[in-house]
Amino acid sequence: MPTKAKSVRRKPNKPQADFPLFPHTRGYWCKKIRGKQWNFGRWDDPEAALQKYLDEKDIILAGRDPRAVGAAATGEGLTVQEACNYFLTAKEVDTESGRLSQRTFKEYLDECKLICAALGKITHVESLAPPDFQLLRKSYPKSWGIKTVDGHITRSKTVFKYVYEDGMIERPVNFGNGFKRAPKKLHDRMRQQKKAERGTLEYSRDNIKLILENTTGWMKACTLLGIQAGFGNEDCARLTVNVIDFDKGWIDYGRGKTGQDRHFPMWPETAEAIKEAMSKRRVPKMEEHDDLCFLTSHGRPLKHEILNENGSYNRTDNVGVSFIKLLRKLEIHRPDLSFYSLRRTFATVAQDAGDAEAKNYVMGHSDSSMPGLYRQRMSAPRIEKVVGFVRTWLFEEDVKMRQDT
């Protein structure tokens, strides 16, 4: 039986020589723009196809999908403002439950304001394309450093990834190559440049001794905790009586930032300074702060943050501010040198004790390695070795040197 011949549609000729579209075999007038082929209408209506091309050409050249823009024009789809509000509502719940700090929530709030200002509140999320995020990147002040810019890029991406993962948009947002964090080598280069300009962010033994000789009360206790166990500002402000065993001379205090356990022996000097500071502690303004070891002269926590109803954020860090004042008074202050540099000094000195795991345990570092996940505790002798090594470096090195000579 003879086979029936397959009919082949003949492509039409262009209506005029300068017609910008070409006929595709599937029956559409098409054009390749930015490496992608777009169809603008059927063969039987070249004028409508040309008009659609003229209407959508600039949108495509700008890196956007005209279909998403069309949805925006009809009021369909999630707007940038709606995405930000959805994200902030979820993060507000996290803040109220204590899973997110007020400071971080304020950073997200400010980030959403930047996003809305640069991208437009009523812009639909699914119409966003790399050029939009390049525009957002250009809106950042030129005075911002690499680290600051990277932080804003990360927070902006977090907002849009969140709404995608919650199913608020059908496809992930394409941020493009121009909206990425700076490469690690650039951070390393900037760090080396800063180091060359202002030196390392650590204290000498003489610096620490000078600080201890010129301070009393909670500041002396915090200084000792900083150099003997790598305590940061927040660690000192959150220290409570119930985590200290003065009889055994140990502190069992998880680090709030990482949620890691910290268990270490106090130096005699540290225990004495804590006791002295607590004996002179003012009556707390609020009952909920009664268990804190250290309070200001006004009976308030050394460090606290308040997010007001109007969106303003107040942050008080008496540890950091008072320490900088002391450094300036002693004429040993340098750019970027702060109370937190005591933690850096501890880490630098303690590494020579030869037990990196014990050092990290005392500092409360997060260990996601397989051995770290399996390890249930750290033995006391290993911890004592690290903490004792730093004490020897600080208080007994001069004695040893004199004995050796």
Poorly predicted regions are 401-405
Secondary-structure element string: EEEHHHHHHHHHHEEEHEEHHHHH
Helical content, roughly?
40-55%
Q: CATH superfamily assignment of the largest domain?
A: Intergrase catalytic core
| Backbone structural class | mainly alpha
What is the CATH-assigned architecture of the largest domain? Orthogonal Bundle
Instruction: Note the main sheet.
Output: 3 strands, antiparallel
Question: What's the end-to-end separation, in Å?
Answer: 113 Å
Number of helices: 16
Report the CATH C-level class of the largest domain: Mainly Alpha
Average residue pLDDT: 86
Strand content: 5-15%
How would the global form be characterised? elongated
Structurally, the number of domains stands at 2
Rg to the nearest angstrom? 31 Å
Remind me, CATH topology of the largest domain? hpI Integrase, Chain A
Strand order of the largest sheet: 1-2-3
Q: Count the strands?
A: 8
